[in-house]
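Issue: ligand-bound run for zinc ion - logging full I/O for the record.

Environment: standard queue, default settings, no custom constraints.

Inputs:
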Amino acid sequence: MSNPNPPTKQSFDLTDRITITTDAYDMMLLHAKQRLPFEACGALAGSLPGIQQHAGIQITAVYAIPNEAPNPNRTFAFSPDAWVNAYYRMQKNRQSLVGFFHSHPTAPPVLSQADLAGLRHSGAETCWILSLANPDSPSVCVYRQLRGQWLPSMFAQVRV
Ligand SMILES: [Zn+2]
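Outputs:
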C-alpha cells in the first residue's frame, strides 16, 4: 500500500540540524541590504531530512522574489509570477523548497502577527528573518515549523 504522506514530513523532527551554505547566507543578506528601506523576501531551497538520511535540513540556494506588498517598508508579499517561476526553477534544479526568508529593515528578527498569518498555509519548514535594524551587524533568526508551531532554532553556516 502506498503512503500518501511524503517521507520528508514524517522524518522531520527537532533533532534535525539546520545548515546553510555560506554562499547562500551571504546572498540572502546582500539581497536584504540592496532592498532597503523595503523588506526583501524570497525562498530557500536545498534538501530536507528523508532525502538524505541524517543530513538534516540543508539550504544551498536562495531565490529572491520581488516584494509586491502595498506598504513594502513594513510587510512583504511575493510577486505571484516570480514565485511560480522560482518554484519551477527549484524543481528543474532538483531542489526542495526548504523555507522562506524576509527582512525587517528596522525591527528585530521576531515573527510578527502578519508573518505568522502568512506562514499558516505556506507549507514552509523554516522561516528566516534578517533584521537590519543595525546595518553594520545584521541579525538572523530562523524559526522552524513543528506541528503548526513556529519555534526559534539554531542553525550553522557551512562552507562547501
Ligand atoms: Zn516579518
